[in-house]
Amino acid sequence: xxxxxxxxxxxxxxxxxxxxxxxxxxxxxxxxxxxxxxxxxxxxxxxxxxxxxxxxxxxxxxxxxxxxxxxxxxxxxxxxxxxxxxxxxxxxxxxxxxxxxxxxxxxxxxxxxxxxxxxxxxxxxxxxxxxxxxxxxxxxxxxxxxxxxxxxxxxxxxxxxxxxxxxxxxxxxxxxxxxxxxxxxxxxxxxxxxxxxxxxxxxxxxxxxxxxxxxxxxxxxxxxxxxxxxxxxxxxxxxxxxxxxxxxxxxxxxxxxxxxxxxxxxxx
Length: 268
Known about the structure:
Elements: E1 6-10, H1 15-26, E2 30-35, H2 38-49, E3 55-59, H3 65-79, E4 84-87, H4 104-131, E5 135-140, H5 153-173, E6 178-184, H6 191-194, H7 208-219, E7 230-232, H8 238-250
Parallel strand pairs: 1-2, 1-4, 2-3, 4-5, 5-6, 6-7
């Protein structure tokens, strides 16, 4: 499977999505950008085209089936193929409190964007990707998808579900040339993260370039052997993951699983 020449990035009008779109374009990857904000999206498209690559921006709500279908059709028609999909669009609860102190509708809104969105976009992109001989899918995840927390219940639930989706995608479509990856971007300084009380006073942030480096390495096929697994920008690099490759595979590490009590545990 060749290195990615085209990519579709959701949530591309701001924050991590914008940095990824511009970073991939700077590496010569043509990009399809999906977001809801037309004015901001146009700015990112212009920024990407300045790198000499094709770029198209389509407005869509990733939780709307018809919006997503039209957006993917438009991107595929403009770029001819989609080699790399980055499911980046995401939200978090408006309050940083335990479950009983939150509005369930607010939490459900988070689940819809963070889970229904990737489901719809991936379902629309996969036929295009398979027709082109395969590709890679990156689901932007979080450490909260893999560990329990006292806050952000809906967000943690959504990211746990997304982690399972990543593993299922990689298992179901690996033989057809598709790899799927979970990537936590770390603590990137964006409008969303700076508004979160848990980051108040933070002075050390993950560089957007670190996220882009991992996504680009995934797109290039450098990390194909580690499909279905979890990476974290700012901690992992393409080189460090390659150095750990054999250990990760030997221990079947970096995946969502139920730990057991040992060889005598019937849940093995």
